[in-house]
From TrEMBL, chain A:
The keyword Transport applies. This is Probable sugar-binding periplasmic protein. It comes from Marinobacterium rhizophilum. Keywords: Signal, Transport. Residues 1-22 form the signal peptide. InterPro entries: Bact_solute-bd_prot1, SBP. It is found in: Periplasm. Belongs to the bacterial solute-binding protein 1 family. Part of a binding-protein-dependent transport system for a sugar. Pfam families: SBP_bac_1.
Amino acid sequence: MKTLKTCLSGIALSVACAGASAGEVEVLHYWTSGGEAAAVNVLKQQMEAAGHTWTDFAVAGGGGESAMTVLKSRAVSGNPPSAAQIKGLDIQEWGELGFLSSLDDVAAAGEWDSLLPAVVSDVMKYDGHYVAVPVNVHRVNWLWANPEVFRKAGAEIPTTWEQMIEVGPKLKAAGIIPLAHGGQAWQDATTFEAIALAEGADFYRKAFVEHDEATLQGETMIKVLSTFKQLRELIDADSSGRDWNVATSMVINGQAAMQIMGDWAKGEFTAAGKTPGTDYVCMPAPGTADMFTFNIDSLAMFTQSEDNRQQAQHELAKMVMEPKFQETFNLNKGSIPARQGMDRTPFDACALASMDDFTQSAEKNSLVPSMAHGMSTSSRVQGAIYDVVTNYFNSSDITAEQAAEKLARAVNASL
Amino acid sequence: MNPKTLSLPETGTVRPVTLRLQDRLAAQLPKLVLAPTVIVTLVAVYGYMIWTGLLSLTSSRILPVWKFIGTEQYGKLLENDRWGVAVENLIIFGGLFILICLVLGVLMAILLDQKIRAEGALRTIYLYPMAISFIVTGTAWKWLLNPGLGLQKTLRDWGFEGFTFDWLVNPDRVVYCLVIAAVWQSSGFVMALFLAGLRGADQEMIKAAQLDGASMPMIYRRIILPSLKPVFFSAFVILSHIAIKSFDLVAALTGGGPGYASDLPATFMYQHAFTRGQMGLGAASAMLMLGGVLAILVPYLYSELRSKKNG
């Protein structure tokens, strides 16, 4: 009993002390896997070194579904965390509901406008004000391949979708699954958007950013959809419900030849002790060589009532954009820094290629937000596209024309 | 005699007071004990039902927003292809699940009722799946039914090269996989219900029938089973609840896939209300599910209450 009492008073005292000297930040995130947790720990240490209290509010679950549920209940009860890991257009939804606070002072002092490409900073702003800070940039349109398997089958790694479909039978004959895939809606959508991107960034933007009805059910979309359906032949029968990392491990151990997946897949190769270039090859998805679909993780800042908590929150936002954090975090996460002009030496070949393509595609205007990862559209529209795409991919009785029509209808209904 | 009669009024004057207090307490006790439960139920069940109903009339997206738009969400829901699939799946799944469970349960109960050896052990074996969570059932059957891992692979390894059983990955068949797993889970429970009913059947009547020369199947068909109507009804109501609220089984066994071919209303509701930021639409689907439950429950309660009044 006595120890309990001392403990309690100790805790009370330390909280009081922390409150007096600096603020507290509570960060809701779902970076719970090994590399991710290490990455977020860097931020925690930096905040604590600056004298703030860091309350970690990690909610497990890769896609962040449970984290978002928790966040909603906290926000409704009037007690939101200082910062939460929210992505893409959902930042706009939270902004619209009036929960987010402006970071314009921090952004102006840190010159964020010059450090971030416009497409990235647009996602971070609501109504022209910065309300979120980007921590990394993932490239989604990657093709991961096992060169050893291709050598064995006497085939070339494809650079167009036609080649990929042609190389299928050759790989199958050698007893290899041509394409490792997990039959989950978001993975279907990831592959689908890569094929759509090969038709050009303008087409992609019209369809998935502007939701132009004519484009959604036009000829090009029908072509994209039928290519997509042809890929079904390259995938094994058991793919239904398979997780993406299981699919990646099929490429790692040579059971499958290729996978289309964002650069988080690199983490699996690294964890298996493989080196890029020799054990595995990272290339842009077929036909998308100088294009880039981005997926940005970001921390959105919620309005805080107490001044010192708000100060700590601004400090946090400042730190996230600093080179040191951006470097350490992204080395651990497998992604590239959102901040431009960083030191390139610590990054591997795949990350360097990704950085180059990021800057180049921003200049060429072929840098586009990922639909499959909630960058180009709200979760409502994204869900509607998911439904049509995954249903079409899995059922045998829908034609590409019907699917295109359904796509246009579903997107319209959810706008 | 005297001291007794003398002492009686003495205690009599003291006891009624304490008794009255105790009595009053005793009379109020059940109400006091039940009050918290009643309040919690009123708020957490009926209160939230009303809340969900109101929510389904708003344009709520990621958070509740009290902007009323009438029945627009219901219109959207009925036009939604995916909701159509979910309802159709529920009809197939629920119908088959209830029917097979009832038939199997009755059969197993009758067979177990034949005064066999080790009845207790057999009963436990059949009933045990009920003790397992649907998540575990779903996961175990996911492995069993996976073509590259379970039944199909095993039989092919044994030399039946042409054997194919790929329902789990076939969009047209996947809903039957749900039926298989759910029947495995619940038929033992139905058996236990019927077994208890069979044991309660009037032995005199059975003996009389036997004396009249009726065969055992005839006795079961004409006398025992008709007398089990209430058991049959309870089993039906419980099973239809299980079918309508089925969520964990789908989540573990198929994840709603391939595509959304094995979606049920409960998984549809969860996904739209909580992960897709379409709270209004999710609430509308929840209200339609509530309607489904009421459609079964109201006639049941009505018949229960009426029969009690008559009896």
